[in-house]
Amino acid sequence: MADDAHDPGRALVALVTGATGGIGTALCAELAAHGYTVVAADLDGGRPPGARHAVTLDLRSGESCRAAVEETTERCGRLDLLVNNAGINARGRTEHMPEDVWGGVVDVNLNGTFRMSQAAYPAMAQRGGSIVNLASTGGLVAIGGSAVYGVTKAAIVHLTKVLAVEWAAVDIRVNAVAPTIVPSPMTADVLDDAEYMAAKMATIPLGRVVAPHEVAAAVRWLASTDAAMVTGHTIAVDGGVSVL
């Protein structure tokens, strides 16, 4: 049984997008360890450790998002937590950014978060629930060479606030977590770049990257009853980056 269960005797159900990436895998493990029935959603339909079920999801399609939610509720009977974790990046100076690349990142990161949240609303509105969005310190502070990623994450921070206000009446809490750099397939290219990482570490007061399990723990707390009066907020798991 989940330690945060609203319905004693029945585990809460969590749907995690981008479940086969570094943070996604940690999210599935963390939530499962706290009693959630975890449904993993990703393009490849993979099922990481901790996930009970897996669904194929293309965030660029509203139909795919609705199908993922429907399959979750059909298999598990309910949906209590949506973690909008999936995302992509495109690095480069803004003046050289191709318009189609910019649009592709916006469509997955921002529009995908909107599509999944909208798809989850009918299931959650029946008994309440929680949505946790993955933002980034790139959406809180300006990072050169990351305009499109930062803009989408900044928009997710604001979308989090708006949905928290709109959906409070049906007891859906909406929050976000904003980590600094996390070892994952998305950051693999820069983790091996000594010059880039030296500059990056200089911006982090605690002087290290964020472990995936630290992001997962923050997500799990926001979804828990310990955070029952927390909505519309973004927790920065960033070693102090956003306070400089």
TrEMBL record:
Keywords: Oxidoreductase. SUPFAM superfamilies: NAD(P)-binding Rossmann-fold domains. It comes from the Bacteria. InterPro entries: NAD(P)-bd_dom_sf, Sc_DH/Rdtase_CS, SDR_fam. One of its GO terms (molecular function) is oxidoreductase activity, acting on the CH-OH group of donors, NAD or NADP as acceptor. The keyword Ligase does not apply. This is NAD(P)-dependent dehydrogenase (Short-subunit alcohol dehydrogenase family). It comes from Saccharothrix texasensis. The lineage of its organism: Bacteria, Bacillati, Actinomycetota, Actinomycetes, Pseudonocardiales.
